[in-house]
Structures are given as C-alpha cells and as structure tokens.
C-alpha cells in the first residue's frame, strides 16, 4: 500500500486533512461560513434601506402609522403590537430549537422530537403572520391620492384623525370603461380600478370643509429655525407658516391648512392609490413598499426554507437516523441556521419598525 | 464536540445549574429586552426623541444598542458560540463585524454627501 499511495507531506498537520481544526466538524464550520456570507447579504440590504430611507426622509412614512393592524381586531389601532408578537414567536421558536439541540447532545430522542416539532410550529406561525402582514399592507388602509410629482397626499379631519377615502368621496356617474381584452386594444388590458377615481375624491373633498391634507413632510424644529439668521431659514419659516397648521408638533407629519389642501389636491393631484404594489403605495414613496416587500420577503423566504429543513431533520429524528449515527449534530447545524434567521429578524425589526 | 457548556452569563454575575436552565434564563432576558424595545417604540418619550448624540436620536441609539445585546446573547448562547474554540469565534464574528461596520460607515458618508447635493442644488430626484 505504501508504494501506491502518494504522500502529500501534510500528514499529521492540523490542516492536513482527516482532522478537526477549530474543533468543529466540516459541516458545522461550513454552516458558520454560510451564515457569515448570508449575514453580509442581509446587512447589505439593510444598509441600502437605511441609505434610501434617509435620502428620501421627507417622503418616507412613519412605521407605527402604517403597521397598525392586529388580526381579528377590526378598527382597533394597534401600532407595532403584531410585529412584537411575531418577534416573540420567533425568539420562542429559537428557544425550543436550542432545547432540541441540547436534548440531542444527551441523546434523548423523544425530547428532540417534541422540541423540534414546537420549533416547526413557531416557524409556521411566523410565516403565516408575515403573509397576513403582506396582505394587510397590500390591501391598504385609508387610501390616498398621488400627485403629478409622485408625492402621496393623505386625508385627515380637523381634529387630526385619519379619514378614509370611502368616507367622503362622492359617486359620480362616469362613462369611462376599463379596457378588457374584448373591447380595448386587442393585446392590452386596463389596470385594476380603484374603488373611487380621482374626480370622485376631489368632489368629495371640496364638498366637505372639515377635511385637510398632509404629505410626508415632517415638522422641523421650529424654535431652532426661527432663531437662525440665515436667509434660507427665514424663507423656510415663512413657507412653513403659510402652509401648515400643526407647527408645534415637532417630528410629526405636517398638516396643510384648508386653502393649501384644496390647492394641492386640485392642482397637483393625479390618481387615487389604494393599498400597495411595487409601483405605487398609499403610505409614501414607492421605495418604501419596495424595500418592505424585498427585505421581509427575503427574510420570510429564509424562515420558510428553515422550516422545510427543520421538517426534514424532524423526520430523520423520528425514524432514528441520528440514533444510529450516534450523534445529533445535524440538529445542531440546522439549529445554527434557524438562529441565524432569528438574528436577522431582530435586526430587520429594529431598523424597519422601530428606528 | 462541546458537550459541556459554560453555564455563566453576564460575565459570571449569573450562574445557572444546568444548560436547560441557562437557555430559559437567556430567553427571559431576551423577552424583557424586547418588551422594553417595543414599549419605547410605542410610547416614544419626548426626552429620547428630542435629544441627539452624534446626529442620531437617543431613542435610536437605545434601539440599536439593545438589538446588539440581543444579537450577542442569541449568538453566544443559542448558537453556542460561547462554547466554541477562540479561533472559530474570531474568524466568524470579527470578519462579519468588520465588514458590516465598514459598509455602514461608507454608506453613511455617501448618504450625507448625496443629501447635501439634493438639498443645495437643482436635482430633486434622479433614482
């Protein structure tokens, strides 16, 4: 044998092969390196989200005005509660996962089964919740009007409560037809119609003196602006005082007075937006919806694939593969992936919903 | 394989009797931190939103620091990084942290530059 086997000169050395450098098996090490690369991918997404958000900060919605829904509680304003629930579920499923890994170390097959099963359930609840969040986001809330320049105008009453388009728009008989394949250009269909068109919203708004408009501009620190001597700042103060009624609410969205509201709607308004897709959304700049779908979608996909992996390993545990193998390291590796998914969610939750 | 786990957290302040107890202990800690974060996010106390440190609101500093604390405990105890060899820990953690910090730094610098361009010049929207 000695004569035919080539000697590479690395026998017995730490990285010479057949060894466990860093005291971890090949599979576990590779899982860690994969996690590093995926973490860098997600941090690229989050960094670009931060970059875009602060570049368009005056067209970006405020998260706890968008994510205010809770399942089965219609009309209840519950900002952030459901997202907090989702975070809690994912952390809890991480706990059951690490308990499964721990039971695996002690070769307790039944405990591994129970904990791994609970982890899968937690993951499914999370994915279902995220799907529900998407559906609510896409369906929309109060509705809005988009201007010719692309800004989103939202409606409020004089007390500062949001007003839904359906509450004040007027039905106008109209002869406009949506093109179907039968009666329009033969290869094109018209887009989906909103429940009211721009003319109907405009008519309703003009008829109702109580309604005001806001876009996403935030009230700046008026005290600092007024104290400044710069000409640009003085003009800015003049512009703000001409247009808005709630200049004492620093950091909140500025509400136009009635005259400016009518002005904006009639002169700049172009179309009604309800809900969200990748091109328009009723909350703010299109980038907001784009990033929401992209980042939470990527994360949700990772959770979903994690659930699939957990299911596969779960079946393997049940049929006794790891008992025969003598160790439950596969549960540990899949556990690392699952915890990585939880880690990403902790960061997405902070930067998307909290900051 | 690390069958024996280190059972102390908070630099030895809290020591657990078994690995299972340590896991539930860390879970309790993470839940408390999450509840604090969510409560602050809903209430948004004025003292924290109006004061800034290095151009960022104090509230946001709290969120980011608490998130890093949560990330530390998830990585160290749930992913068992505490029990791994120093070389593995360093090659994973230091690489990721260095690259992420670098990315955030250059994007913040770029973002500030572009913000100034938009604010003081004639371009309103280009991408």
From TrEMBL, chain B:
Ranges in a coiled coil: none
Cellular localization per UniProt: Cell membrane
Pfam family name, one: COX4_pro
Keyword Membrane: yes
Topological type in the membrane: Multi-pass membrane protein
InterPro entries associated with the record: Cyt_c_oxidase_su4_prok
Key words of the record: Cell membrane, Membrane, Transmembrane, Transmembrane helix
A GO cellular component annotation in the UniProt record: plasma membrane
Transmembrane residue ranges: 23-42, 54-73, 93-115
Name of the protein this chain belongs to: Cytochrome c oxidase subunit IV
């Amino acid at each position: 044998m000695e004569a035919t086997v080539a000697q590479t000169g690395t026998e017995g050395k730490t990285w010479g092969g057949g060894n466990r450098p860093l005291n971890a098996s090949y599979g576990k090490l590779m899982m860690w390196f994969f996690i590093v690369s995926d973490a860098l991918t997600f941090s690229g997404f989050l960094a670009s989200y931060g970059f875009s958000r602060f570049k368009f900060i005056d067209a970006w919605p405020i998260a706890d005005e968008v994510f205010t829904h809770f399942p089965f509680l219609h009309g209840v304003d519950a900002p952030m509660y459901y997202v907090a629930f989702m975070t809690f579920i994912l952390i809890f499923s991480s706990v059951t996962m690490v308990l499964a890994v721990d039971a695996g170390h002690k070769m307790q097959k039944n405990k591994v089964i129970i904990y791994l099963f609970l982890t899968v359930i937690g993951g499914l609840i999370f994915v279902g919740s995220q799907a529900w969040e998407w559906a609510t986001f896409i369906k929309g809330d109060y509705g809005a009007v988009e201007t010719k320049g692309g800004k989103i105008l939202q409606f409020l009453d004089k007390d500062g409560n949001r007003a839904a388009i359906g509450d004040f728009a007027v039905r106008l008989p109209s002869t406009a037809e949506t093109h179907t394949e039968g009666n329009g250009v033969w290869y094109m269909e018209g887009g989906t119609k909103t429940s009211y068109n721009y003319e109907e919203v405009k008519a309703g708004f003009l008829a109702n003196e109580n309604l005001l408009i806001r876009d996403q501009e935030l009230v700046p620190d008026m005290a600092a602006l007024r104290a400044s001597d710069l000409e640009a700042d003085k003009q800015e103060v003049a512009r703000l005082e001409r247009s808005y009624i709630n200049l004492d609410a620093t950091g909140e969205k500025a509400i136009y007075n009635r005259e400016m509201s009518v002005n904006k709607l009639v002169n700049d308004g172009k179309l009604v937006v309800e809900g969200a897709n990748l091109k328009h959304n009723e909350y703010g700049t299109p980038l907001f919806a784009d990033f929401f779908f992209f980042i939470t979608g990527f994360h949700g996909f990772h959770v979903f694939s994690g659930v699939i992996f957990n299911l596969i390993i779960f079946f393997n545990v049940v049929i006794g593969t790891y008992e025969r193998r003598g160790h439950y390291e596969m549960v540990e590796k899949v556990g690392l992936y699952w915890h990585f998914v939880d880690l990403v969610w902790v960061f997405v939750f902070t930067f998307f919903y909290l900051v | 394989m690390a069958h024996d786990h280190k059972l102390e957290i908070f630099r030895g302040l809290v020591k657990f009797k078994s690995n299972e107890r340590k896991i539930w202990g860390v879970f309790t800690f993470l839940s408390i931190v999450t509840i604090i974060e969510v409560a602050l996010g809903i209430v948004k106390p004025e003292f924290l939103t109006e004061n800034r440190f290095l151009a960022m609101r104090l509230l946001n500093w709290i969120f980011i620091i608490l998130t890093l604390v949560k990330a530390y405990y998830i990585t160290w105890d749930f992913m068992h990084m505490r029990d791994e060899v120093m070389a593995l820990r360093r090659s994973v953690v230091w690489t990721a942290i260095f690259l992420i910090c670098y990315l955030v730094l250059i994007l913040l610098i770029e973002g500030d530059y572009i913000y100034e361009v938009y604010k003081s010049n004639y371009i309103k929207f280009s991408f």
